[in-house]
Amino acid sequence: MDALIILFIIAFWLCTLLCLKHFWTFLNEKRGVLEHVSKVTKVDPFEKKEKKKDRRAKLFSRVTKYADDFSDLGQRINFFSENHIVDQWLRLSGNPLKLSVARFQGLKIFLLVVGFISGVLAVVIGLPFSQYMLVFNPIIGYFLPILLIKREVKRRQQLIRKDLPDFMDTVSTSLQAGVSLDQALREVIRHFDGPLREEFSRFNQQIDLGVPREKAYRDLLKRNENEEFQTLVKALIQGMDLGIPIAKTFKIQAEDLRQMRQEQVKELAAKASPKVTLVTTFLIAPVSILMIAGLMILNMLMGDNSIFNYL
Q: What transmembrane ranges does the database entry give (predicted)?
C-alpha cells in the first residue's frame, strides 16, 4: 500500500511538471502569434499596454477610494514621505496608477489601519505569531506604498539607461540622413517600448501644443533623474542655444554612454571579487572544514579502525 501511495505521489508531481511545461509553451506561442498579428495588422502593442495600464489605474482608483478619507491625516503623519518627496517619486516613476500626492499619503494610512485590523483579527482568532502580526502588520501597511514606489522609480530609471544608447544611435543616423529632430523622434520612438517612449511621446505632444522647446526639455529633466538621460537633454539644450549640430550631439553622447557603461561594468566586477572572497572565507570554507572533520570523527567512531575496537 505504501508503495502505491508513493507511486501516485510521483505520478502527480510528474503530471504537474508536464502541465507547467505545456502551459509555458502555450504562453510563448501565444506571445509569438500576437506579435505576428500586430505586425500584419499594424497595431502598435505599446498602445495596448497603455490601455491596459489605464484600466489597471481605474481599477486601483476604485479599490483605494477610501484612502482619500485619510489624506489629511497622511499629510500630517509624513515620516519618510514628505509631500515634496512623494511628488518627486510619482514624477520619476511615471505615476502608472495615476495617484496624487494626497491619495498616496492617505493610502499609507489606510493600509496602516487595515494592517492593525488584520492584526487584531489574528489575535482574536488565535493565529500563530498573532502578537507579532499586531505590531508588524500596521508597519508593513504604512511602508508598503513607499517601498513599492521607490522600487518603481529605480526600475524605470534602469530601463531608460538600458535603451538610451540604441535610441541615440538610431536618432543620430536619422538626423544624418537629413530628417528633422521632431520627425526623427516620432519615427524612432515607435520602435522602442517602455519609459523612454513615454517620455519622448509626451515631449512631442508638448511641442505640438505650442510649448517652447526649452521648457519641454526642462520638463524632461524634472521627470527623470537618470544621469545619462539628463546629460543628453542638457546637451540638447546647449546645442540649441549655441547652434551645435544635433546629429553630432547624439553620436558623441551615445559613444560616451557606452564608455561609461563599460567603466561601470568593470567597477562592479572589481567590487564583486572581495564579496566572493568574503563568502568563501566565512561560509564555504567553515562548512567544508566541518564536513571533513565530521567524516574523520565518524570514521574514528564507526569505521573499521574504530577506537572502540581497541578498548
A: 6-24, 107-126, 132-149, 276-302
Q: Which residue's entry shows cell 482619500?
A: 68
Q: What's the rounded Cα separation, in Å, for the pair 225 and 84?
A: 15
Any idea how long the chain is? Answer: 311
Is pTM beyond 0.90 here?
Answer: no
Q: Are 181 and 207 within 8 A, CB to CB?
A: no
Digit-coded pLDDT (tens) for 251-308: 777 777 777 777 777 777 777 777 777 777 777 777 778 888 777 777 777 766 666 6
What is the number of other CB atoms lying within 10 angstroms of the CB of residue 288? 11
Residue 263 to residues 154, 205, 226, Cα–Cα distance (Å) = 20, 36, 17
Angle between helices 101-125 and 130-176 (to 10 degrees): 150
Q: Tell me the one-letter amino acid at 95.
A: N
- Check if the beta carbon of residue 105 is closer than 8 Å to that of residue 86: yes
Q: How far apart are CA 86 and CA 90, in angstroms?
A: 6
Q: H-type helices in 189-226, by residue range?
A: 195-208, 213-223
How far apart are alpha carbons 171 and 207 in whole angstroms?
18
